[in-house]
């Protein structure tokens, strides 16, 4: 805020254990561990909460996946990286071999419904980061991505509502 007001002042950030108790089982919690030495403690909290099915680690590379899986093989991962210009086959085979549940491509502009469908056929979700403009979010929804990280959550919700309303037959539109 430019006025210097801090409406969040005095608020306490919940612990992972508290978040796992509050968030229901229908939600996925994405963790991006910035301090590798904290990973084992985080995994212990997930283990105690029996929450491996609803927590996903966002990782930058294959080595981090291997490191996490040595700690506990139940850890689920989403990998980030570039999309190849042409053939996705090699990347999709690699992702399946790694056992990732989702992929976050570096360049969402290369995504099309056909490319997203190829990921889905391989059993891998597509989560997009960095789509902040209305037209980018709309294009990603139309391409069929499974998740979208944005700083414009209210706008994204409206786009989703508009898309769902437009797909209804005229007889059932609100």
Uncertain regions: pLDDT < 50 for 5+ in a row?
none
Give the H and E element order.
HEHEHEHEHEHEH
Number of helices: 7
Basic shape = globular
CA-CA gap between termini: 38 Å
Largest sheet: 6 strands, parallel
- Over all CA atoms, what is the radius of gyration? 19 Å
Share of helix, binned? 40-55%
Number of strands: 6
Beta content comes to: 5-15%
- What structural category do the secondary elements indicate? alpha/beta
Record the strand order, biggest sheet.
1-2-3-4-5-6
Could you report the average pLDDT, rounded to the nearest whole number? 86
Structural account:
The protein has 174 residues and is an alpha/beta fold. The chain has helices at residues 16-22, 39-49, 62-71, 89-98, 113-121, 134-143, 153-167; strands spanning 29-31, 55-59, 76-81, 102-105, 125-129, 147-149. A 6-stranded parallel beta sheet has the order 1-2-3-4-5-6. Helix 1 (16-22) runs parallel beside helix 2 and helix 6 crosses helix 7 (153-167). The longest helix is centred in the last third of the chain and has 15 residues, at 153-167.
